[in-house]
Amino acid sequence: MSFTPDQLLAAQRANVETLVGLTNKAFEGVERLVELNMQVAKTALNEAAEATMAAMSVKDAQELLALQASLLQPSAEKAAAYSRHVYDIFAATNAELTAAAEAQVADAQKKVLASVDTAVKNAPAGTENAVALVKSAVAAANNAFESVHKAAKQAAEVAESNFQAMTTTAVKATQGSTKAKRAA
Prior knowledge:
By secondary structure, the protein is mostly helical. Helix content is 92%, strand content 0%.
């Protein structure tokens, strides 16, 4: 099967458009991450100033310990929230890139199947076994791709579940530690 220069040019153009689209999606994810980090930095600066002012107005050690305990829990919760936001940004960007890649793979699969069908129609007599072998190989490749795709999705779901459980446990542990310090 041979391609005309126009077909090759169209394929290259489509590949460049796909690359530009994927690059834009990746940059959008980076922009969201930078925006989050700027917001966190501004908030942390303001909170540090407030904490410094509060520490300067402390009159005794007991009051200092109470201040320290009151700052510890929100910090842990904020760190967990930040981690969740970062994870969400990465997960959303990954989902967008995966969807684009899946669309490309689906398009490529359609083109391969169309090429196989064209080759089958134009195959000389007596090549039925070879045609059946090619069809079988294409079907096996499609099945393998589907299996890998399903496994990757399941792994991502397990990772997300574990991440959520870990952050919840960390926040609860900090809350318990803060309560214990307050009681002491």
